Amino acid sequence: MTHLEEELIGIKQSLSDLFELVFNQLQKSKTALMKLDKDLAREIRVNEKRVNAYELKIDRDCENTIALFNPVAIDLRFVLASLKINSNLERIGDIAEGIANYVLDLKLEPQAELLQSTRLLEMFDLSLSILETTKQAFETEDTSLARSVFFKDELLDEINIAATDTVADFIKANPESIRRALYAISTIRKLERVGDQCKNISEEIIFNVEAKVLKHTKVTARKSRKANLNSFRFLMATYKMQR
Fold first, then answer.
1. Class of the domain covering 3-242
2. Contact yes or no for 23/132 (Cβ under 8 A)
3. How far apart are the first and last CA of the chain?
4. Which of 13, 52, 186, 240 has a CA 20 to 30 Å removed from the CA of 84?
5. What is the pLDDT of residues 119-152, one digit of tens each?
6. Is 97 helix (H, G, I), strand (E, B) or coil?
7. Cβ partners under 8 Å of residue 175, min gap 6
8. E strand or H helix that includes residue 156
9. Residues with Cβ < 8 Å from 58, sequence gap 6 or more?
10. How far apart are CA 42 and CA 45, in angstroms?
11. Using CA atoms, how far apart are residues 35 and 198, in angstroms rounded to an integer?
Protein backbone atom coordinates (compact mmCIF):
# COMPACT_ATOMS: atom_id res chain seq x y z
CA MET A 1 0.00 0.00 0.00
CA THR A 2 1.35 3.42 -0.98
CA HIS A 3 1.52 6.43 1.32
CA LEU A 4 -1.22 8.09 -0.73
CA GLU A 5 -3.54 5.11 -0.29
CA GLU A 6 -2.91 5.18 3.46
CA GLU A 7 -3.80 8.89 3.57
CA LEU A 8 -7.01 8.35 1.60
CA ILE A 9 -8.07 5.48 3.87
CA GLY A 10 -7.39 7.70 6.88
CA ILE A 11 -9.52 10.52 5.48
CA LYS A 12 -12.38 8.14 4.76
CA GLN A 13 -12.23 6.70 8.28
CA SER A 14 -12.22 10.17 9.81
CA LEU A 15 -15.28 11.12 7.78
CA SER A 16 -17.06 7.93 8.88
CA ASP A 17 -16.29 8.84 12.49
CA LEU A 18 -17.65 12.35 11.92
CA PHE A 19 -20.80 10.89 10.35
CA GLU A 20 -21.33 8.82 13.52
CA LEU A 21 -20.70 11.80 15.78
CA VAL A 22 -23.16 14.14 14.06
CA PHE A 23 -25.75 11.34 13.87
CA ASN A 24 -25.49 10.92 17.64
CA GLN A 25 -25.71 14.68 18.09
CA LEU A 26 -28.91 14.86 16.06
CA GLN A 27 -30.39 11.86 17.83
CA LYS A 28 -29.63 13.40 21.22
CA SER A 29 -31.21 16.68 20.14
CA LYS A 30 -34.46 14.82 19.49
CA THR A 31 -34.40 13.24 22.95
CA ALA A 32 -33.48 16.54 24.58
CA LEU A 33 -36.39 18.35 22.91
CA MET A 34 -38.99 15.68 23.58
CA LYS A 35 -38.06 15.35 27.26
CA LEU A 36 -36.87 18.93 27.75
CA ASP A 37 -33.61 17.43 29.00
CA LYS A 38 -31.40 20.46 29.56
CA ASP A 39 -28.44 18.38 30.75
CA LEU A 40 -28.47 16.47 27.47
CA ALA A 41 -28.75 19.76 25.59
CA ARG A 42 -25.64 21.02 27.38
CA GLU A 43 -23.84 17.78 26.44
CA ILE A 44 -24.68 18.42 22.79
CA ARG A 45 -23.19 21.91 23.05
CA VAL A 46 -19.99 20.52 24.57
CA ASN A 47 -19.73 17.80 21.89
CA GLU A 48 -20.04 20.44 19.19
CA LYS A 49 -16.42 21.28 19.97
CA ARG A 50 -15.51 17.71 18.96
CA VAL A 51 -17.39 18.16 15.69
CA ASN A 52 -15.46 21.34 14.98
CA ALA A 53 -12.16 19.64 15.86
CA TYR A 54 -12.93 16.79 13.45
CA GLU A 55 -13.74 19.26 10.68
CA LEU A 56 -10.43 21.08 11.15
CA LYS A 57 -8.48 17.80 11.22
CA ILE A 58 -10.09 16.48 8.04
CA ASP A 59 -9.58 19.79 6.26
CA ARG A 60 -5.91 19.71 7.24
CA ASP A 61 -5.52 16.08 6.15
CA CYS A 62 -7.08 16.81 2.75
CA GLU A 63 -4.90 19.87 2.22
CA ASN A 64 -1.76 17.95 3.18
CA THR A 65 -2.68 15.08 0.85
CA ILE A 66 -3.00 17.47 -2.09
CA ALA A 67 0.21 19.29 -1.22
CA LEU A 68 2.38 16.25 -0.51
CA PHE A 69 1.07 13.57 -2.87
CA ASN A 70 -0.41 15.49 -5.81
CA PRO A 71 -3.34 13.06 -6.34
CA VAL A 72 -4.95 12.83 -9.78
CA ALA A 73 -8.11 11.41 -11.35
CA ILE A 74 -10.30 9.47 -8.92
CA ASP A 75 -7.96 10.11 -5.99
CA LEU A 76 -8.21 13.85 -6.51
CA ARG A 77 -12.00 13.63 -6.87
CA PHE A 78 -12.17 11.79 -3.55
CA VAL A 79 -10.15 14.46 -1.75
CA LEU A 80 -12.19 17.29 -3.26
CA ALA A 81 -15.45 15.52 -2.41
CA SER A 82 -14.20 14.85 1.11
CA LEU A 83 -13.58 18.55 1.71
CA LYS A 84 -17.19 19.37 0.83
CA ILE A 85 -18.67 16.40 2.70
CA ASN A 86 -16.69 17.47 5.74
CA SER A 87 -18.23 20.95 5.59
CA ASN A 88 -21.76 19.57 5.19
CA LEU A 89 -21.35 17.28 8.19
CA GLU A 90 -20.12 20.15 10.34
CA ARG A 91 -23.24 22.10 9.40
CA ILE A 92 -25.43 19.21 10.53
CA GLY A 93 -23.58 19.37 13.84
CA ASP A 94 -24.45 23.08 13.99
CA ILE A 95 -28.10 22.22 13.41
CA ALA A 96 -28.11 19.77 16.33
CA GLU A 97 -26.50 22.40 18.53
CA GLY A 98 -29.11 24.94 17.43
CA ILE A 99 -31.92 22.61 18.51
CA ALA A 100 -30.12 22.09 21.83
CA ASN A 101 -30.09 25.86 22.31
CA TYR A 102 -33.87 25.89 21.83
CA VAL A 103 -34.19 23.28 24.58
CA LEU A 104 -32.17 25.44 26.95
CA ASP A 105 -34.47 28.39 26.25
CA LEU A 106 -37.77 26.51 26.60
CA LYS A 107 -39.61 26.41 29.92
CA LEU A 108 -42.15 23.70 29.06
CA GLU A 109 -42.11 20.55 26.94
CA PRO A 110 -43.67 20.78 23.45
CA GLN A 111 -47.37 19.89 23.48
CA ALA A 112 -48.35 16.49 22.10
CA GLU A 113 -50.95 18.15 19.87
CA LEU A 114 -48.30 20.41 18.33
CA LEU A 115 -45.86 17.54 17.78
CA GLN A 116 -48.52 15.48 16.05
CA SER A 117 -50.03 18.21 13.88
CA THR A 118 -46.65 19.49 12.64
CA ARG A 119 -45.27 15.94 12.21
CA LEU A 120 -42.16 17.08 14.05
CA LEU A 121 -41.33 13.63 15.44
CA GLU A 122 -41.77 12.11 12.00
CA MET A 123 -39.42 14.74 10.61
CA PHE A 124 -36.79 13.94 13.23
CA ASP A 125 -36.97 10.23 12.40
CA LEU A 126 -36.84 10.91 8.67
CA SER A 127 -33.82 13.21 9.08
CA LEU A 128 -31.98 10.55 11.05
CA SER A 129 -32.89 7.93 8.44
CA ILE A 130 -31.62 10.14 5.62
CA LEU A 131 -28.36 10.79 7.46
CA GLU A 132 -27.87 7.06 8.08
CA THR A 133 -28.56 6.29 4.41
CA THR A 134 -26.07 8.94 3.35
CA LYS A 135 -23.43 7.45 5.65
CA GLN A 136 -23.97 3.99 4.16
CA ALA A 137 -23.77 5.38 0.62
CA PHE A 138 -20.49 7.09 1.48
CA GLU A 139 -18.90 4.04 3.09
CA THR A 140 -19.98 1.63 0.33
CA GLU A 141 -19.65 4.12 -2.55
CA ASP A 142 -23.18 3.13 -3.58
CA THR A 143 -24.50 5.79 -5.94
CA SER A 144 -27.96 4.19 -6.12
CA LEU A 145 -28.23 4.57 -2.36
CA ALA A 146 -26.97 8.13 -2.66
CA ARG A 147 -29.68 8.94 -5.21
CA SER A 148 -32.37 7.55 -2.89
CA VAL A 149 -31.54 10.44 -0.55
CA PHE A 150 -32.96 12.89 -3.10
CA PHE A 151 -36.41 11.30 -2.85
CA LYS A 152 -36.35 11.19 0.94
CA ASP A 153 -35.37 14.85 0.99
CA GLU A 154 -38.55 15.64 -0.96
CA LEU A 155 -40.57 14.19 1.94
CA LEU A 156 -38.81 16.53 4.36
CA ASP A 157 -39.66 19.42 2.06
CA GLU A 158 -43.34 18.47 2.06
CA ILE A 159 -43.52 18.34 5.86
CA ASN A 160 -41.67 21.63 6.10
CA ILE A 161 -44.03 23.42 3.70
CA ALA A 162 -47.18 22.03 5.33
CA ALA A 163 -45.98 23.03 8.80
CA THR A 164 -46.33 26.76 8.08
CA ASP A 165 -50.12 26.74 7.92
CA THR A 166 -50.34 24.16 10.70
CA VAL A 167 -48.35 26.28 13.14
CA ALA A 168 -50.26 29.42 12.14
CA ASP A 169 -53.55 27.68 12.92
CA PHE A 170 -52.17 26.36 16.21
CA ILE A 171 -51.10 29.84 17.31
CA LYS A 172 -54.55 31.22 16.52
CA ALA A 173 -56.16 28.52 18.66
CA ASN A 174 -53.52 28.62 21.41
CA PRO A 175 -52.15 32.17 21.70
CA GLU A 176 -50.67 31.35 25.10
CA SER A 177 -48.33 28.84 23.43
CA ILE A 178 -46.81 31.11 20.80
CA ARG A 179 -43.27 30.63 22.10
CA ARG A 180 -43.39 26.84 21.92
CA ALA A 181 -45.03 26.99 18.49
CA LEU A 182 -42.30 29.26 17.15
CA TYR A 183 -39.60 26.95 18.50
CA ALA A 184 -41.39 24.04 16.82
CA ILE A 185 -41.42 25.72 13.41
CA SER A 186 -37.79 26.77 13.86
CA THR A 187 -36.84 23.15 14.64
CA ILE A 188 -38.70 21.99 11.54
CA ARG A 189 -36.77 24.49 9.43
CA LYS A 190 -33.50 23.16 10.85
CA LEU A 191 -34.44 19.55 10.18
CA GLU A 192 -35.32 20.45 6.61
CA ARG A 193 -31.77 21.76 6.26
CA VAL A 194 -30.43 18.38 7.44
CA GLY A 195 -32.00 16.96 4.31
CA ASP A 196 -30.33 19.66 2.22
CA GLN A 197 -26.91 18.85 3.67
CA CYS A 198 -27.41 15.11 3.09
CA LYS A 199 -28.45 15.83 -0.49
CA ASN A 200 -25.26 17.84 -0.97
CA ILE A 201 -23.20 14.98 0.44
CA SER A 202 -24.94 12.52 -1.89
CA GLU A 203 -24.08 14.71 -4.85
CA GLU A 204 -20.43 14.59 -3.80
CA ILE A 205 -20.56 10.80 -3.48
CA ILE A 206 -21.86 10.58 -7.05
CA PHE A 207 -19.18 13.04 -8.19
CA ASN A 208 -16.49 10.92 -6.55
CA VAL A 209 -17.65 7.60 -7.95
CA GLU A 210 -19.12 8.55 -11.34
CA ALA A 211 -17.35 11.86 -12.06
CA LYS A 212 -20.77 13.48 -12.59
CA VAL A 213 -21.58 16.98 -11.35
CA LEU A 214 -25.21 17.27 -10.23
CA LYS A 215 -25.16 20.79 -8.82
CA HIS A 216 -27.52 23.34 -10.42
CA THR A 217 -29.66 20.64 -12.03
CA LYS A 218 -33.45 20.72 -12.33
CA VAL A 219 -33.77 19.06 -8.92
CA THR A 220 -31.75 21.83 -7.32
CA ALA A 221 -33.76 24.52 -9.11
CA ARG A 222 -37.02 22.93 -7.94
CA LYS A 223 -35.69 22.89 -4.39
CA SER A 224 -34.94 26.62 -4.60
CA ARG A 225 -38.45 27.38 -5.86
CA LYS A 226 -39.95 25.40 -2.98
CA ALA A 227 -37.86 27.31 -0.47
CA ASN A 228 -39.04 30.63 -1.90
CA LEU A 229 -42.66 29.48 -1.85
CA ASN A 230 -42.34 28.32 1.74
CA SER A 231 -40.93 31.69 2.83
CA PHE A 232 -43.79 33.49 1.10
CA ARG A 233 -46.42 31.29 2.75
CA PHE A 234 -44.89 31.84 6.18
CA LEU A 235 -44.95 35.61 5.69
CA MET A 236 -48.57 35.49 4.56
CA ALA A 237 -49.58 33.34 7.53
CA THR A 238 -47.86 35.78 9.88
CA TYR A 239 -49.64 38.70 8.22
CA LYS A 240 -53.04 37.01 8.63
CA MET A 241 -52.39 36.42 12.35
CA GLN A 242 -51.66 40.10 12.84
CA ARG A 243 -54.92 41.26 11.21
1. mainly alpha
2. yes
3. 70
4. 186
5. 999 999 999 999 999 999 999 999 999 999 999 9
6. helix
7. none
8. helix 143-173
9. 11, 14, 15, 18, 82, 83, 86
10. 5
11. 26
